[in-house]
Amino acid sequence: MKASIALLLSSLLAPAYAGTYSISHTVLPTGFLDFFEFEAIADPTHGRVNYVNKATAVAQGLVKKASNTSYIIRADDKTVLNPSGAGRNSVRIKSTKTFTKHVAVFDVHHMPQGCGTWPAIWEVNEPQWPNGGEIDIVEGVNDQGPNAATLHTGAGCTMPASRKETGTPTLLDCNANVNGNAGCGVKFPTANSYGPAFNNNGGGWYAVERAPAGIKVWFWPRHSTTVPAGVKNGGSSVNTDNWGTPTANFPNTSCDISQHFAAHNIIINLTFCGDWAGSVYSQSGCPSTCDDYVNNNPGAFSKAYFDFASIRVYE
Ligand SMILES: *[C@@H]1O[C@H](CO)[C@@H](O)[C@H](O)[C@H]1NC(C)=O
Ligand SMILES: *[C@@H]1O[C@H](CO)[C@@H](O)[C@H](O)[C@H]1NC(C)=O
Ligand SMILES: *[C@@H]1O[C@H](CO)[C@@H](O)[C@H](O)[C@H]1NC(C)=O
Predict the structure, then answer these.
(1) How far apart are CA 82 and CA 86, in angstroms?
(2) Which of the residues are catalytic?
(3) Mind telling me which CDD domains this protein's record contains (predicted)?
(4) Residue 45 Cβ < 6 Å to ligand 1
């Protein structure tokens, strides 16, 4: 009796559960761009892309609020490109704020699709790469699902082969300087986590938790019966302890998270071809060559867009 009262008391008096976070940023279609700045930079991954600035993106309709529940971020789908000129106009946006311990929830209706596309939702400290770490939440190329979540770090961060997660690990060394910067990835179990299958299913929710004890990524398809209420409804706080087994789990067993991960920006980018999408283009069953296809077929990129309902950050 006494023991159970003591237990009850200690649980009532406990300061906060490890997995509890409070809302710090709500990014909705109205005011969506206030959270971001544009990176009109040369693509570090050598893609057939021309990242434009905010004025150009707005003027060309590459970023726009489509409704209260829909913010569009897209590539140009109208222009035939001069093969010796700049790549296809597209957008790379980066949060002005940085985050350490946090949860981010992305409610996504649609992601870019089409041969040659290489979209990503990720977190990084660009000046300190790779020693400041990189967390790829959504990434893939040429419509090839499923999604993979991947960490890239400096030397000395590895993942155990066996972990509590629903996805399947690929490589275990997160060190960007080995294995051609493949990083330590986890392949998601369901095709509807990426590309056309994701879009045909109405998208879904991606969430990342970064804490000293580890990094976790969850994915719930749009009609999932297990999506937590706080995720679905955009709650004012979330408790990741109640979210079930993560899709990808990167524990700190043999990777000191605080040492390998600096303060991160959230980045959303869409490039074409380049180091990854270009190098596996023909294996993906795509026509012609990647650069030629991107140059000559603007209409093939009518679905090369993200559609976000919201992004919420909890700290
Ligand atoms: C886009 O995102 C990925 C992260 O997955 C990153 O490695 C890559 O450098 C970015 N590509 C471009 C073109 O900015
Ligand atoms: C969109 O939101 C605004 C205020 O945030 C509201 O006045 C308007 O009625 C909403 N429109 C729709 C179609 O829900
Ligand atoms: C892992 O995280 C826990 C909880 O934050 C911490 O107590 C422990 O020291 C960490 N271990 C390593 C190897 O970083």
Answers:
(1) 7
(2) 134, 139
(3) GH16_fungal_Lam16A_glucanase (cd02181)
(4) yes
Which ligand is nearest the CA of 185, by number?
Answer: 1
**What is the DSSP secondary-structure string of 123-136?**
EE-GGGTTTT-EEE
The answer to whether 287 and 101 have CB atoms below 8 angstroms apart is no
Q: How far apart are CA 23 and CA 160, in angstroms?
A: 31
Of ligand 2's listed atoms, the one at least distance from the Cα of 67 is 13
Q: 139 CB under 6 A from ligand 1?
A: yes
pLDDT band at 16 (very low <50, low <70, confident <90, very high): very low
Side-chain-facing half-sphere of 121: CA atoms under 13 Å = 24
Instruction: Tally Cβ neighbours within 10 Å of residue 31.
Output: 11
CA of residue 30 to ligand 2 center, whole Å:
9
305-314 vs 20-27, strand pairing mode: antiparallel
> Which among 41, 40, 110 is positioned nearest to 73, based on CA atoms?
110
Atom 1, ligand 3: which residue's CA is nearest? Answer: 213
Residue 254 CA to ligand 3 center (angstroms) comes to 10
For residues 106 and 137, what is the distance between their CA atoms, to the nearest angstrom? 10
Distance from C-alpha of 176 to C-alpha of 151, rounded to nearest angstrom:
9
pLDDT tens for each residue of 147-192:
999 999 999 999 999 999 999 999 999 999 999 999 999 999 999 9
- Joined together, the tokens standing for residue 126 give 């660009």
What is the Cα Rg of the chain in Å? 20
What secondary structure letter does DSSP report for 27?
A: E
